[in-house]
Amino acid sequence: MNIIAWVVLGILAGAIAKAIYPGAQGGGFLTTMILGIIGAFVGGSLFTLIQTGTLQLTSAGLSIPGVFVAVLGAMIAIYVWGLMNRSRV
After folding, report:
1. Given 24, 27, 30, 56, which residue has the most CB atoms within 10 angstroms?
2. What pTM was estimated for this model as a whole?
Protein backbone atom coordinates (compact mmCIF):
# COMPACT_ATOMS: atom_id res chain seq x y z
CA MET A 1 0.00 0.00 0.00
CA ASN A 2 1.45 3.39 -0.87
CA ILE A 3 2.07 6.25 1.54
CA ILE A 4 -0.99 8.25 0.48
CA ALA A 5 -3.28 5.33 1.27
CA TRP A 6 -1.56 4.93 4.67
CA VAL A 7 -2.16 8.60 5.45
CA VAL A 8 -5.83 8.38 4.39
CA LEU A 9 -6.31 5.18 6.41
CA GLY A 10 -4.50 6.78 9.37
CA ILE A 11 -6.68 9.87 9.35
CA LEU A 12 -9.84 7.81 9.03
CA ALA A 13 -8.91 5.20 11.64
CA GLY A 14 -7.53 7.76 14.09
CA ALA A 15 -10.61 9.98 13.87
CA ILE A 16 -13.01 7.07 14.32
CA ALA A 17 -10.97 5.64 17.20
CA LYS A 18 -10.83 9.00 18.99
CA ALA A 19 -14.60 9.39 18.56
CA ILE A 20 -15.25 5.91 19.99
CA TYR A 21 -12.63 5.87 22.75
CA PRO A 22 -14.01 7.25 26.05
CA GLY A 23 -12.47 10.28 27.73
CA ALA A 24 -10.30 13.10 26.47
CA GLN A 25 -7.19 11.98 24.60
CA GLY A 26 -5.68 15.35 23.72
CA GLY A 27 -3.47 15.83 20.70
CA GLY A 28 -4.35 17.44 17.43
CA PHE A 29 -4.68 16.45 13.80
CA LEU A 30 -1.09 15.21 13.45
CA THR A 31 -1.33 13.09 16.59
CA THR A 32 -4.60 11.59 15.36
CA MET A 33 -3.02 10.75 12.01
CA ILE A 34 0.11 9.21 13.55
CA LEU A 35 -1.89 7.14 16.05
CA GLY A 36 -4.15 6.00 13.20
CA ILE A 37 -1.17 4.91 11.08
CA ILE A 38 0.37 3.12 14.07
CA GLY A 39 -3.03 1.57 14.69
CA ALA A 40 -3.20 0.33 11.11
CA PHE A 41 0.12 -1.45 11.61
CA VAL A 42 -0.83 -2.80 15.05
CA GLY A 43 -4.23 -3.99 13.86
CA GLY A 44 -2.86 -5.44 10.62
CA SER A 45 -0.08 -7.27 12.45
CA LEU A 46 -2.46 -8.69 15.07
CA PHE A 47 -4.92 -9.72 12.36
CA THR A 48 -2.13 -11.50 10.46
CA LEU A 49 -1.02 -13.20 13.68
CA ILE A 50 -4.54 -14.48 14.33
CA GLN A 51 -5.02 -15.64 10.72
CA THR A 52 -1.67 -17.28 10.02
CA GLY A 53 -0.03 -17.77 13.40
CA THR A 54 3.05 -15.78 12.34
CA LEU A 55 3.94 -12.29 13.50
CA GLN A 56 4.60 -9.98 10.53
CA LEU A 57 4.68 -6.19 10.33
CA THR A 58 1.81 -5.55 7.94
CA SER A 59 -0.67 -2.75 7.56
CA ALA A 60 -4.41 -3.04 7.23
CA GLY A 61 -5.69 -2.41 3.71
CA LEU A 62 -7.89 0.46 2.60
CA SER A 63 -11.17 -1.49 2.68
CA ILE A 64 -14.06 -1.89 5.11
CA PRO A 65 -12.47 -4.79 7.05
CA GLY A 66 -9.11 -2.99 6.88
CA VAL A 67 -10.59 0.17 8.38
CA PHE A 68 -12.24 -1.89 11.13
CA VAL A 69 -8.93 -3.58 11.99
CA ALA A 70 -7.10 -0.23 11.82
CA VAL A 71 -9.63 1.39 14.17
CA LEU A 72 -9.15 -1.43 16.69
CA GLY A 73 -5.40 -1.02 16.40
CA ALA A 74 -5.71 2.76 16.78
CA MET A 75 -7.75 2.27 19.94
CA ILE A 76 -4.92 0.12 21.31
CA ALA A 77 -2.43 2.83 20.30
CA ILE A 78 -4.55 5.52 22.01
CA TYR A 79 -4.65 3.42 25.18
CA VAL A 80 -0.87 3.00 25.19
CA TRP A 81 -0.44 6.73 24.37
CA GLY A 82 -2.62 7.56 27.38
CA LEU A 83 -0.54 5.32 29.63
CA MET A 84 2.67 7.00 28.50
CA ASN A 85 1.33 10.55 28.92
CA ARG A 86 -0.45 10.09 32.23
CA SER A 87 0.69 12.58 34.85
CA ARG A 88 2.30 11.02 37.91
CA VAL A 89 0.86 13.19 40.68
Report:
1. 27
2. 0.76
